[in-house]
Automatic annotation (TrEMBL):
InterPro entries: FAD-dep_OxRdtase_2_FAD-bd, FAD/NAD-bd_sf, FRD_SDH_FAD_BS, Fum_R/Succ_DH_flav-like_C_sf, Fum_Rdtase/Succ_DH_flav-like_C, SdhA/FrdA/AprA, Succ_DH/fumarate_Rdtase_cat_sf, Succ_Dhase_FrdA_Gneg. GO terms for biological process: anaerobic respiration; electron transport chain. It is found in: Membrane. It catalyses: a quinone + succinate = fumarate + a quinol. Pathway: Carbohydrate metabolism; tricarboxylic acid cycle; fumarate from succinate (bacterial route): step 1/1. PROSITE patterns: FRD_SDH_FAD_BINDING. It comes from the Bacteria. Keywords: Electron transport, FAD, Flavoprotein, Membrane, Oxidoreductase, Transport. One of its GO terms (cellular component) is plasma membrane. The active site is at R277 (proton acceptor). Belongs to the FAD-dependent oxidoreductase 2 family. FRD/SDH subfamily. This is Succinate dehydrogenase flavoprotein subunit.
Length: 575
């Protein structure tokens, strides 16, 4: 049995930042990071636009209080305000710390870190590295893992979280290269496994974003929080779904419909293209619905709108948002200097996740905690984003709460013993699970079932939702779940068998999707990214509360937890 003081699952920003903090706090601790891809290939590397912090380099009137208010208002008042205060107060420190680690931020002419405008923010506070900010930060953090001697298990897939008597004791993992199984026990387990965009058919997320950590927590009997809040990013490149960063609109790009109108004037006149993402996504979806979308031949009535950069000029496009130009050129053959980009909303971010407190400790119920289990980043829900995340707050959450959780873990494991567990029992159970997948003589390909499931989630739980639609969706996905025992694998070998991973990921997607739909069906109001056409108003008396969803094969049980309000009373959200 492998042993570490701390095992961190996930090699993205939150996991790496936590590992660095633990090693800095107590260099004697044995820390390991497990990642199903190499950490450098974690989805954090795709984050483009920037990281918000009140450095006041561009706008001296900014303050952490203004950043906190923008975040709470953006969240449609569902964010926990104690967590938001910590996030915004810590922001300048963590950005300066990243710079000292060697992150190459874009600069002002006088050498200070540059800051740009971003949707929903009242000041220019988003620090950036051109439009490759996640890439710049993650590379330095991974270098620091090596510097601090953190062990990396890369291309190991975690199959199971071990929880016994209310305590997380370790994990069971599978090596992609040769199918070897290993049990790891640890004094503390941390999940930083990212989001679940692949539950839907069009997403900006990479192929690894399958909600593994969330599904494992749910199967272990732990609740997931606020899963109904799925963020659609307004500008996914049509038809591929790849992200065109909000940085492009921050630098001055326009959204235009088939009539050539900048239609955001009708939806958020004060913020225009820099309205929060939920509002902008619904505006685009409404334009398309009303027949003002655009066809590839340029005629009206099509499935996308245009993002127009042409007025920005070649020099600004190539210096400030080169990666976005490159993506549009490479994937759909559009030269954004000369032509507008076709865009439509794409599933982007999960506001919900594994519920945690501000120390990153996982909640077992609205008022209980799990011993030895921590989470941070997109996989967690400390609820700094509530019902809708503001752009450039996600990298910030990963770094701030990665750091705070790492610090909490380093203190938590002092003077604790390694837990006792029956290694053989878990190895036997997991190897039987894998063998039964290999032996399954089904009639259905993994890809067919996954595609049907993703299409169903997109159709029945999209930008606009109703009770009738979602009830039908739940029936459909339950039918699809019953087909899971009918999948078959072509590859029966142990060596680099990617089909085994795909089959396990599909099970996780199905669990997460069922929880999203169940939680959404029960929230009879519109708030942030969750928009009900049959309940178009926000209902604070009924639903100013967090959803806690518990999974079992028999169905989903729901309970609720109050929102923490410290300084900003809920009010109407207008831009």
């Amino acid at each position: 049995m492998l042993e570490h003081d701390v095992i961190i699952v996930g090699g993205g920003l939150a996991g790496c930042r936590a590992a660095v903090e633990i090693a800095r706090t107590d260099p004697s601790l044995k820390v390991a990071v497990v990642a199903k891809t190499h950490p450098i290939r974690s989805h954090s590397v795709a984050a483009q636009g920037g990281i918000a912090a009140t450095l006041k380099n561009v706008d001296s009137t900014d303050s952490w209080e203004a950043h906190a208010f923008d975040t709470v208002k953006g969240s449609d008042y569902l964010a926990d305000q104690d967590a938001v205060e910590l996030l915004t107060q810590e922001a300048p420190n963590v950005v300066i710390d990243l710079e000292h680690m060697g992150v190459l931020f874009s600069r002002l002419p006088d050498g200070r870190i540059a800051q740009r405008a971003f949707g929903g923010h009242s000041h220019n506070r988003t620090c950036y590295a051109a439009d490759k900010t996640g890439h710049a930060i993650l590379h330095e953090l991974v270098n620091n893992l090596r510097r601090y001697g953190v062990q990396i298990y890369d291309e190991w897939y975690v199959l199971r979280l071990i929880v016994e008597e209310g305590q997380a004791k370790g994990i069971v993992m599978y090596r992609l290269q040769d199918g070897q199984l290993a049990v790891v026990r640890a004094k503390a387990v941390m999940f930083a496994t990212g989001g679940y965009g692949r539950v839907f058919n069009t997403t900006s997320n990479d192929f690894a974003s399958t909600g593994d950590g969330l599904a494992m927590a749910a199967v272990a009997g732990l609740p997931l929080e606020d899963m109904e809040f799925v963020q659609f990013h307004p500008t996914g490149l049509y038809p591929v779904g790849v992200l065109i960063s909000e940085a492009v609109r921050g630098e001055g790009a326009y959204l235009i419909n088939a009539d050539g109108d900048r239609f955001m004037a009708n939806y958020a006149p004060s913020r225009m293209e820099l309205a929060p993402r939920d509002i902008t996504s619904r505006a685009i979806a409404r334009e398309i619905r009303a027949g003002r979308g655009i066809h590839p031949d340029g005629s009206a009535g099509g499935p996308f709108v245009y993002l127009d950069l042409r007025h920005m000029g070649r020099e600004k496009i190539m210096s400030r948002v080169p990666f976005c130009w490159e993506e549009a050129h490479r994937l759909v053959g559009v030269d954004a200097v000369e032509q507008p980009m076709p865009v439509r909303p794409t599933v982007h971010y999960s506001m919900g996740g594994i519920p945690v407190n501000t120390q990153g400790q996982v909640r077992s119920s609205p008022d209980g905690l799990v011993e030895g289990f921590f989470a941070a980043g997109e996989a967690a829900c400390v609820s700094v984003h509530g019902a809708n995340r503001l752009g450039s707050n996600s990298l910030l959450e990963c770094v701030v709460y990665g750091k705070l959780t790492g610090s909490a873990i380093a203190h938590y494991v002092q003077n604790r013993k390694l837990p006792t567990l029956d290694e053989q029992r878990y190895l036997t159970e997991v190897s039987q699970q894998i063998q039964s997948l290999l032996d399954q003589a089904g009639t259905c390909r993994i890809h067919q079932l996954r595609q049907a499931f993703q299409d169903t989630m997109t159709q029945y739980c999209g930008v606009f939702r109703t009770e009738a639609l979602m009830s039908e969706g739940l029936t459909q996905i339950q039918n699809l779940q019953q087909q899971y025992p009918q999948i078959y694998l072509d590859d029966r070998g142990k060596c680099w068998n990617t089909e085994i991973i795909e089959a396990l990921e599909l099970r996780n997607l199905m669990i997460v999707g069922q929880i999203i739909l169940s939680a959404a069906l029960n929230r009879q109001e519109s708030r942030g990214a969750h928009f009900r056409e049959d309940y178009p108003q926000r209902d604070d008396p009924g639903f100013l509360k967090h959803t806690f969803a518990y999974y079992s094969p028999a169905g989903i049980d729901l309970s609720y937890r109050p929102v923490t309000i410290t300084r900003f009373a809920p009010q109407e959200r207008k831009y």
